[in-house]
Fold this sequence. Notes:
By secondary structure, the protein is α/β, with parallel strands linked by helices. It is 27% helix and 29% strand. A hairpin with a 2-residue loop joins strand 21 and strand 22.
Amino acid sequence: MMNEPTVLTARRLYDGKRLIDHPIVTLAEGRIASISTRAESAIPAGARVAEFPEGTLAPSYFDVHIHGSAGHDAMEATPEALTAMGRFLASRGTARFLATTVTAPVDATLRAVSGLAKIIAGGGTEGSAQPLGIHLEGPFLSHKRRGVQPAEHLLAPDIAVFDRLCDAAEGHVRLMTLAPELPGAAELAAHAARRGVRISLGHSDATAAETQAAIAGGAASATHTFNAMRPLDHREPGILGTVLTSDALFAELICDGIHSAPEMTKLWWRAKGRERGILVTDAMSAAGMPDGEYRLGGFAVQVANGRAMANGVLAGSVLTLDRALVNFLAFTGARIDEGLRLLSGNPARLTGFEAEAGRLAAGGVANLVAVGEDGSLAASFLNGKLVSPAHRG
């Protein structure tokens, strides 16, 4: 029959809050029709059944920091580029993301966010992960901790420039990375908050006091913890020490074993825990592609053996969130539900998209994954349809 329901069974289900043993999840017309257990109900007659006897069903992933994948960069800002990115991401378990910019000439960024706004308003493409908003990574960043962000395009915090970007983005800027020590950063952060934009502290040489002031001013998160930050010092903890010890701040981590060592992942986990940790990819256009030269915004990046480099500096990653989960569990020994929260519910809480991501409930959109005990992706469902079996590697 054309409209017969699909039923998923598994060893467990993580609904965004708790683990449920032996679930029966019924999908119909792109939504979750019901969630029950084998003890409560039987599988409906005539349903198509997908079984994951050793697996865990969970909400699809939400990446709040991603520049590109599948050979495309978010700043291309075309339907073709975002659809290619989205289809690749969906096949790796990600259903939602923030399209992330990189520092570039203001006019180029204005064109990018304007194009992205139209795509976001359009609601996405069938079978493709959907951008829910925009993450501005730059241009208000530290020269000293810029990483690969082009120095010639960095700007001092400027409310007028920020407003131009927000207006071009038609209200879809949801997150902005900002170096809090820059003159005018506090005023810009307060103004951004009034426009509904969360501030993530990063690409920063801030002292502990400067970081604490930014948190008191409402900063919500930290961008790729450890990377492009003043190093930890036992007498001046700086931004890193403050990020790790602040209970008020979410904190991103690129969990690829390249951007930070496994031991530092364990330190981050002990510091931020299940309530405040967020796994991100910071992926660029080479994610899902063979080694070679690719673009990050307006500059070239060389990719080989899992490393993306520009002028000898790490330039994003080729990580996917399904791989980040496997790495995280292996590095820390955390439980599967603890890891799943870091790339579903916590990103949704940070960005205010709890209704669109991070939980499974009857009546909700059927975006979910099935994962093995080690976190490896077994299947990805988008709007109730199997997108692709897991890609290995």
